[in-house]
Amino acid sequence: MSDPKSKEANSRLWFVLISILSFLFGPFPASPVGQSVVTKQTEGVLIHSPNDIVRITVCSPGMLHVVAGAEQSRFDATRQPWIENPCQPRHFSVIEKDGVTTLTIEFVQVRISANGEQLIFLDKEGKELLREVNRGARRYETLTLDSESLYGVSDRFRPGQNVAFYGLGQHQSGLFNYRGAVVPLAQANCDVAVPLFISTQGYAILWNTASASSFDNRFPTQLKLSAEASDAIDYYFFYGPEMDTKSFISTAN
């Protein structure tokens, strides 16, 4: 019959041995999973994330054009006739550090997370203006309309705490500041939808689609922009840096 004290001594010896081996050889580093591939192009960058493809085009010293979709082949289909002058190549820089890529133009920076699933917009000093939520910001729901394959698309952002939003056309809600509001962006009786809003932080977004859309800020910490039927997520990000319209116009020219 074995000695209980001997069993206990053996157990302790095994525990010490396993602890030493774990210290010397573990934990084993995990292989990079879900990393994005960011490619610099003549007009901006192309991002291949685990979930979608994103193209950021530099349009002016303070304007970027963002298109994101499940299929890159649909990107050209997002060009719309109401954009009079397409973006022209401008000077920009792209720097990668610790897996995070930053595209910089004169007035704006956009920081691309290591997995490519989050964009963060900053001014030239690095002060944050707007960011996508860190998980599941961009979403695509497949649908078929009149035998055409399209997507219901949406993008979710995290606006600053004290930022107000103005614009979006002519509506009957009686609101001037749309922070905390839900605004359907579709033509209706006495409603004129213009999918452009401006913030008190000096940035604006043009939600670039003719589809029925929605501006949804019912939860103040999240701003959701969605389109019912589109080829891809498509928007222009402007930064003044002032809030007045003249600044945006002069920046775009």
Can you tag this structure with a few keywords?
253 residues; mainly beta; Immunoglobulin-like; ten-stranded antiparallel sheet; eight-stranded antiparallel sheet; 18 strands; 12% helix
Verbal overview:
- The protein is mainly beta and 253 residues long.
- The chain has 2 helices and 18 strands.
- Strands 5, 6, 7, 8, 9, 10, 11, 13, 16 and 17 form a 10-stranded antiparallel beta sheet that branches.
Short description:
The protein has 253 residues and is mainly beta. It is built from two helices and 18 strands. The longest helix is centred in the first third of the chain and has 22 residues, at 4-25.
What is the CATH first-level class name?
A: Mainly Beta
Termini Cα gap? 92 Å
Work out the radius of gyration.
24 Å
Q: Indicate the CATH architecture.
A: Sandwich
Structural class: mainly beta
Spans where pLDDT lies below 50 across 5 or more residues = 18-32, 245-253
Molecular shape: globular
Using the coordinates shown, work out and report the CATH topology: Immunoglobulin-like
Helical segment count: 2
Counting DSSP E segments of at least 2 residues, the number of strands comes to 18
How many domains make up the coordinates? 1
The CATH homologous superfamily is termed: glycosyl hydrolase (family 31)
Could you report the average pLDDT, rounded to the nearest whole number? 84
The largest pleated sheet is described as: 10 strands, antiparallel
**Topology order in helix (H) and strand (E) letters:** HEEEEEEEEEEEEEEEEEEH
Helix content: 10-25%
Strand residue percentage: 35-45%
